């Protein structure tokens, strides 16, 4: 068993109670030390398959910090790396990492993505992830109105989250009645 597999095996029981899953583990030599990189993300396996469109809260820095402490403690107590010194890096997969599994797509409902599939490429807002299909809302173009496109997950080569610098209207937070920021009148 490789060092990365041993690390993954020792960390999965520690990460699961935090509501996270391990996306990837790499162990690389770096001089006299090793660099252990652990990618964690929100566990969506508890979401019912029938729930195809609820938005999954993005992984916060606080949750990554909590995972880092748990991983560090577990590795220090484990024999997975032996006594050799190591540098630990725990992070989320990030926006540039390709989406290839149903769970990865499910975490990105509501986001603008490009999907490369057997029939070509399509860019649209991911609105639903079923057991076997993705549904995207493709914005209107010069000669075509806004429309939905369904792609079989089996035909997907990869998906890529598109970075948006402006938020759509439905993503904007609603106005609050809270007047705690307003100045009090005497």
From TrEMBL:
Bias (Acidic residues): 171-186
Keyword Cytoplasm set for record: yes
Domain Ribosome maturation factor RimP C-terminal: 99-165
Chief place where the protein resides: cytoplasm
Region named Disordered: 161-186
Sorted UniProt keywords: Cytoplasm, Ribosome biogenesis
Transmembrane stretches, start-end: none
Compartment annotation: Cytoplasm
Gene Ontology terms: biological process: ribosomal small subunit assembly; translation
Gene Ontology terms: cellular component: cytosol
Domain Ribosome maturation factor RimP N-terminal: 11-95
CDD domains: YlxS_C (cd01734)
Keyword Cytoplasm set for record: yes
Lineage top rank: taxon: Bacteria
SUPFAM superfamilies tied to this protein: YhbC-like, C-terminal domain, YhbC-like, N-terminal domain
Entry-linked Pfam families: DUF150_C (PF17384), RimP_N (PF02576)
Annotated family: Belongs to the RimP family.
Function, as annotated: Required for maturation of 30S ribosomal subunits.
HAMAP family cross-referenced by the UniProt entry: RimP
Protein name per the record: Ribosome maturation factor RimP
Organism of derivation: Intrasporangium chromatireducens Q5-1
Gene: rimP
């Amino acid at each position: 068993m490789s060092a990365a597999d041993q690390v993954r095996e020792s960390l999965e029981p520690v990460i699961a109670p935090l509501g996270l899953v391990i996306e990837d583990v790499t162990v690389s030599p770096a001089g006299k030390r090793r660099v252990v990189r652990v990618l964690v993300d929100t566990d969506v396996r508890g979401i019912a398959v029938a729930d195809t469109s609820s938005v999954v809260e993005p992984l916060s820095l606080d949750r990554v910090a909590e995972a880092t402490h748990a991983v560090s403690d577990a590795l220090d107590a484990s024999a997975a790396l032996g006594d050799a010194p190591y540098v630990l890096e725990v992070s989320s997969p990030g926006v540039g990492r390709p989406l290839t599994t149903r769970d990865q797509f499910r975490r990105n409902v509501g986001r603008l993505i490009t999907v490369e599939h057997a029939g070509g490429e399509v860019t649209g807002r991911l609105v639903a992830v079923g057991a076997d299909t993705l549904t995207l809302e493709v914005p209107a173009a010069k000669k075509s109105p806004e429309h939905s496109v369904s792609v079989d997950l089996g035909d997907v080569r990869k998906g890529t989250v598109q970075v948006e610098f402006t938020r759509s209207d439905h993503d904007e937070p609603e106005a609050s009645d809270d007047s705690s920021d307003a100045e009090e009148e005497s």
